[in-house]
Design goal:
By secondary structure, the chain is mainly alpha-helical. Helices cover about 75% and strands about 0% of the residues. The longest helix has about 35 residues.
Length: about 230
Amino acid sequence: MATPRLHMWLMLVLTFSTGVIDAVGFLGLDRVFTGNMTGNVVILGMALTGTTNLPVLGPALALVAFFLGAMLCGRMLRGRPDGWVGATSVALIIVAAVLVAISVLLFVAGRHAFPYMTEGITSGLGLVMGIQAAAARHVKVPDVTTVVVTSTITGLAADSRLGADKKQDWLKRFLAVLLILAGAVAGASLMTITLWLPISISAFLTLVVLVVGHIRKRAEKRRGNDGDQRA
């Protein structure tokens, strides 16, 4: 499989994982999105009116943590060429490690073991979703940001035969929407068993993406070195 196609599938896997995490955040962590910041901003705005029972602290912490995560990843990727680079692998290692740590904590202690534990988990998930989003942005798979599909749906509709009738990779766009939906279904379903399980599955998927992407990067680097030596 060509590398751009492989990267597309890897980012689609992370899109599914985001759907899982957002289901956990909204249903299990006081109605907070930790990946979809558009939804978070809307929830926070409604909560600030004081006319609803929506949370303020959780969405605010998720927004700040997401911003910091994206900024941290941007710093790691500063000056690196577009595509999958070594720092991309490091970023996904951090994402997977934090998800594993949160899963273990929930398995051992539960969600209410410590004061403000829910808010701490929300912040941790927001941080790693920000890192993931920035890493995916650097890999540069068009229409697959891994954390939001609004622009993808817009492109799918606007460029369709009933719209502008422009050439588009409709299957990729459709899969991005479908997979974040499927991730939300999976996350909500798994939460009926226990809260740590969907997070651990997202951690596993992140590790799979990390390993496959890193192996392909190393293989391409070896081929490049061999070509230089033969030249």
